[in-house]
Design brief:
Number of strands: 9
Largest sheet: 8 strands, parallel, barrel
CATH architecture of the largest domain: Alpha-Beta Barrel
Bound molecules: (3S,4R)-3-hydroxy-2-oxopiperidin-4-yl beta-D-xylopyranoside
Mean pLDDT: 93
Order of helices and strands: HHEHHEHHEHEHHEHEEHEHEH
Distance between the termini: 55 Å
Shape: globular
Strand content: 5-15%
CATH superfamily of the largest domain: Glycosidases
Helix content: 40-55%
Low-confidence stretches: 1-28
Number of helices: 13
Length: 380
């Protein structure tokens, strides 16, 4: 009886092994390349900005890809003031809650974007009930309450905050926003002070675009030094990285890294995308208020991206990731600004109604294999 049992066990084992080895054989041939998040483990997070449909699961295919490929999330719009705090006495947390839940359930490094910005912020923030501009003290109170409420709600779950977004002009001077004109230049330090008080363990960032421009970069370094001088830690600067196929030059991106690192500041690339379309009248950077009139000449790839351009896109992504790898000790995160080309804000900025191809996934949720290969290639 025992012998028979042993023989039967051995037989079963042999069958299992052959099935397994056969599976292995098949697997070897079809094994998908490493997911981005796994390829860069121990180096930096690879993140993606997600929209409401992806956060809530209405775009289930998108959500699956997000979980498969990325280990950090940014909210494309749902934590911006106008969405999360649309009226003086009303917060709207549903979408943000869904976003944070998705990130928490999937063990992602969750980013909050953004607390203090001149854009996508309702007018009432800066006015009293009669529509008159607030005083410095009154606006500071509004800011403090907003930050305490939003950061406090997600304390311990949102791990990093873009505290202030885009406070600088391209020449490095301070942007003339309502925050600045009512409070003064120290609105930035105040915002960081309030965020730090609301969650002392959260990483805090100053985020902006075009930091490859030396004057603007100098402005950002000065801002960050001022915050640090108040004893408030700044974990990193966020370079948005809304780039094109040729601008900025790779050497200019490298200077972003070397100059900040020299100043003792780590760098995250927080909104990476690469427009493949013609420049619209020299509009670069990412000022959301820029708008250029539609012209067919500015929209050449409505029927699909030519292979040659796809290859250029792949090479460009590859060379950027090679740079991120070179400075991996000081790069905490690289985040794509959107999942698929269909989702990208670059279809409507700075020209409405174009067909752009700036991201890793195409309009059918298919990964762009050449882009993926170039990016993964830098890890070998
Ligand atoms: C963009 C979103 O992607 C769009 O959906 C929205 O209409 C406008 O804002 N810099 C930022 C981001 O910090 O918040 C912006 O996101 C893109 C530029």
């Amino acid at each position: 009886m025992k012998k028979g049992y042993t023989f039967f066990t051995l037989f079963l084992l042999a069958v299992c092994c052959s099935v397994l080895s056969c599976n292995n054989g098949v697997q070897k041939k079809t094994t998908a390349p490493l997911a981005l998040k796994d390829a860069f483990t121990g180096k930096f997070y690879v993140g993606v900005a997600i929209n409401r449909k992806q956060a809530t699961g209405q775009d289930i295919k998108g959500q699956q890809l997000i979980k498969q490929q990325f280990n950090s999330l940014s909210p494309e719009n749902d934590l911006k003031w106008q969405n999360i705090h649309p009226e003086r006495s009303r917060y709207a947390f549903d979408a943000a809650d869904a976003y944070v839940k998705l990130g928490t359930d999937s063990g992602m490094f969750i980013i909050g974007h953004t607390l203090v910005w001149h854009s996508q912020t309702p007018d009432w923030v800066f006015e009293d009930a009669q529509g008159k501009p607030l005083t410095r003290d009154a606006l500071l109170k509004v800011m403090q309450q907003h930050i305490a409420t939003v950061v406090g709600r997600y304390k311990g779950r949102i791990k990093g905050w873009d505290v202030v977004n885009e406070a600088l002009n391209d020449d490095g001077t301070m942007r003339d926003s309502k925050w600045r004109s009512i409070i003064g230049d120290d609105f930035i330090e105040k915002a960081f002070e309030f965020a730090h008080a609301a969650d002392p363990d959260a990483e805090l960032y100053y985020n902006d675009y075009n930091l490859y421009k030396p004057e603007k970069r100098a402005g950002a370094i000065a801002i960050i030094n001022r915050i640090k001088a108040k004893g408030i830690p700044v974990a990193a600067v966020g370079e948005q990285a809304h780039y094109g196929l040729v601008y900025p030059a790779l050497a200019e991106v490298e200077r972003v890294l070397t100059d900040f690192i020299k100043a003792g500041i780590d760098v995250n690339f927080t909104e990476l995308d690469i427009s493949v379309l013609p420049d619209a009248q020299g509009v670069d950077g990412a000022d959301v208020s820029n708008a250029v009139r539609y012209d067919d000449k500015l929209n050449p790839y409505t029927d699909g991206l030519p292979d040659k351009v796809q290859q250029e896109l792949a090479k460009r992504y590859g060379s950027l990731f090679a740079l991120f790898m070179k400075y991996q000790d000081n790069v905490g995160r690289v985040t794509f600004w959107g999942l698929t080309d269909e989702d990208s804000w670059l279809n409507n900025w700075p020209v409405r109604g174009r067909t752009n191809y700036p991201l890793l996934f195409d309009r059918n949720y298919e990964i762009k294999v050449p882009v993926q290969q170039e990016i993964l290639g830098v890890t070998r």
